[in-house]
Amino acid sequence: MRSCFLSVLVFLLLVTQALADTSQFFNDLQRELEVSLQHLKIPGAIVVVENDAGSKWTGVAGVAEYPDTPMTADLSLYIASVTKTMTATIVLQLVDQGKLTLDTVLESLFPGIVVNSSKITMRHLLGMHSGLGSYLSNPQFLKILSDTPKRVWTPAELVEYSNWEVAAPGTVFDYNNANYILLGMIIEKLTGISYAENIRTRIVVPLGLQRTYVQESLQIPFPHAHGYNYDEGVLRDATYSIDPSPAGAAGSVVSTGRELMQWVKALIRGDLISSQMQKERLDLKPTANPNMTYGLGILSWNGAIGHNGEYYTYFTAWAGRYKGWYVTILCNGQALGGNDKSSALGVFFWLRDHVTFPGSSIPGVQILLMDS
Fold first, then answer.
1. Is residue 22 a part of any domain in this protein?
2. What whole-number distance in Å separates Cα of residue 87 and Cα of residue 65?
3. For residue 83, is it within any domain?
4. In the prediction, which pLDDT does 105 show?
5. CB-based burial label for 194 (10 Å; 0-12, 13-18, 19+)
């Protein structure tokens, strides 16, 4: 009886200490979030963290719109290339359903669409090993985009501006939006419905999301933050400056901080795909960056696993897991003096380096093997 009492007492003391540690953690996050925006020259940010025990915190800092509209947790922002995690999930679902395999070649679906289409597989596209060029590095495409930023592009047009060989398929990691534009086309071909409708029926509805969707026009239908760009001494509101079609299946989803949290938990746990496909997703391969490995639409970076995103520098995102905590960060571009470090990934790195992430707030909660 005495030993049982002591065990309960020890457990309660541990819980009390863990709760105190978590409370301090949340206070530290808010303080360093505010400092990070000043240091990184970012207008505003939304940060959401949560662990397996259900401890959660949402923090905001800065402005949603200049000069003085504050950032609030309910606002919508582009999640940029975090979209790729959703696109990859749908492709893996199609593999689960037997509509294709990871070794299916592009030629079998779109004959002659690009160079080496008979050698490029779904795995190559998902893992950024297709060896294709990118429309975003094509001077001709960039000139047209600069001259007519509100032009609506089709996925096929974007692929046309990406049709050259950078490397042999399967030989070199090369991060390239064209891979995911092609995957969006494949999703539409195999399902017979739009990419946007696939996101809705395969991601949004199963997870009970309300404000996560594919942005297909310049106007954002929900209350949203404005995105800013600082260039050559000029700060401008770039929210509605470029049509979202060039981002497509590579980066055009809009969400909120809390809904992105719901998504990243499902992503890391593998909720919407089979265990075999989750294993394939998490088969991380080396990249040119010694601190980063890349799987099938997911990356590991300095001990964190998830994905970051950048929508023309105007909106940036991070969604992932680090030391037992899911973390989502949405930012709205660059403030005065902003640069390529003015990003959600930059905020994550700042918080990682300046805040101690505690263990689970309730003893005994199992942490995934991928955590460091």
1. no
2. 30
3. yes
4. 98
5. middle
Residue pair 302/291 in contact (Cβ under 8 Å)? The answer is: yes
Residue 83, token pair as written in the block: 């979209």
Per the structure, the complete domain to which residue 248 belongs is given by 30-354
* Among 193, 211, 184, 206, residue whose Cα is nearest residue 90: 184
Rounded Cα–Cα distance for residues 265 and 83 (Å): 15
DSSP 72-123: -TT-BEE-GGGHHHHHHHHHHHHHHTTS--TT-BGGGTSTTSSTTTTT-BHH
Residue 3 to residues 8, 181, 258, 294: CA-CA distances in angstroms?
9, 62, 43, 49
**Of 308, 314, 292, which Cα lies nearest the Cα of 346?**
308
> Which parts of the chain register pLDDT below 70?
1-20, 360-372
Determine contact, residues 239/226, Cβ cutoff 8 Å: yes
Q: Residues with Cβ < 8 Å from 341, sequence gap 6 or more?
A: 40, 41
Neighbours of 258 (CB within 10 A): 17
Question: Which tokens sit at 176?
Answer: 């390239």
Alpha helix stretches (DSSP H) within the chain: 2-40, 83-96, 122-126, 139-147, 155-160, 177-191, 195-199, 205-207, 248-251, 257-269, 275-281, 344-354
Domains: count for the chain: 1
Half-sphere exposure of 30 (CA within 13 A, CB side): 9
Query: d(Cα 318, Cα 215) in Å, to the nearest integer?
Result: 18
Strand partners, 319: 307, 328
Q: Give residue 13's pLDDT.
A: 33
pLDDT of residue 186: 99
pTM of the model: 0.92
The CATH number that applies at residue 178 is 3.40.710.10
Give the DSSP H or E segment for 178: helix 177-191
Residue 300, beta-bridge partner list: 293, 305
Q: Does residue 67 have a cis peptide bond before it, meaning omega lies within 30 degrees of 0?
A: yes
Domain annotation covers residue 23 = no
CB 371 within 8 A of CB 51: no
55 in any annotated domain: yes
Could you give the count of Cα atoms lying within 13 Å of 329 in the half-sphere of its Cβ? 34
Residues 6 or more apart whose Cβ sits within 8 Å of residue 117? 105, 106, 107, 110, 111
Under DSSP, the state recorded for 59 is E
**Residue 62 identity (one-letter amino acid):** G
